[in-house]
Amino acid sequence: MTSSRQKVTPEQVHLAYDKAKYVYENPGTITKAAAANELHSEHKINEGTAKDFIRIFQHLRKGSVFKRALSEYAMDYFLFNINRDYSNDDLQTSLSALMKHIVYREEGNPKTGRKPVSQHAMRRLHRKYLMIINNSKSESSQLSDEAEQEAVHEKTYSTYRDKIDLKRAIEEYANYPLEVITISNTLFKRNNVAIALIKRYRNYKCQICKISIKKADGSEYIEAAHIEPHSQAGRATLHNIILLCPNHHKEFDLGKTDVRYANNRDFVEITLNGKTHKLLLH
Q: Phi first, then psi: what are they for 271, rounded to 5°?
């Protein structure tokens, strides 16, 4: 937004996205002006800024050029949620609109005196989400989650000094009220943040056979499994996530499995095809 307007908080960006989405999906229910007024009166967002959010969302959905600018965080949040709420084709349409905006801002207009403005941040976001589209065409969602967890590891590696710090962070993120978390100006799924930290907390080792897979770049690979399935509201907590090598993960998913908690959920006893394993959870 223009520098003369107040700074918009992340929470206000989230509210603006929800309102802009509602206006777009429910034509005739509320006007853009009325929606902007609600954002202003109920959430203290500058009314002109609120109008920009609503208009830009519509341009992103239609693939048309927009002239006003969003902050890097706001644009990242909008694209992240368009990718979540709609399809790859819709995200591609939004990226088309973003590129038109980038060109408009970078070219300027000598006739009107509008100066060119570099768009490094917007170009970064364009590359990021174009890569997401390309990855989704060739990788499963599990692989996408693995890649995001690796990115979380890289961004948080120096943040947590010991297991006490890690455990505190895991508990914090597991109970975080939003589905996405911002780390170093990058948006991540909440579950992927918690799982990435759990992998580090448990040293990237299978909790059954105690091995991990060394990758060519020197990093370690391990998989995470939910005891209570994610599809049934199972959360990414130390008491619900176990680390397994690919073989034991497949056996856990496809084999004859029995799961029982013990010692006030400090341990879980998992029987895979007749063999019982006792895993520490805390």
A: -105, 115
DSSP string, 219-240: -EE-EEEESS-GGGT---STTT
Question: Tokens representing 177?
Answer: 């009220």
Query: 3-class SS at 270?
Result: strand
Mean pLDDT by 10 residues, the chain (282 residues): 67 97 96 97 96 98 96 96 92 95 92 93 91 68 74 87 90 81 82 93 95 88 90 85 94 88 86 92 86
Q: DSSP letter for 64, please.
A: -
Domain extents in the chain: 10-138, 140-201, 213-282
User: In 3-state terms, what secondary structure has residue 260?
Assistant: strand
Two structure tokens written together for 67: 């002239």
- The amino acid at 1: M
At 148, the amino acid letter reads E
pTM above 0.85, yes or no: no
3-state SS, residue 186: strand
How far, in Å, CA of 65 to CA of 88, rounded?
19
Residue 147 burial by CB count (10 A; 0-12/13-18/19+): exposed, middle or buried? middle
To which H or E segment does residue 182 belong? strand 180-183
> Exposed, middle or buried by CB within 10 Å (0-12, 13-18, 19+), for 71?
middle
84: left (phi over 0), alpha (psi -120 to 50) or beta: alpha
**Alpha helix (H) ranges present in the chain?**
10-25, 32-43, 47-62, 72-85, 88-107, 120-138, 141-156, 163-174, 190-201, 246-254
Q: What is the residue type of 89? A: D
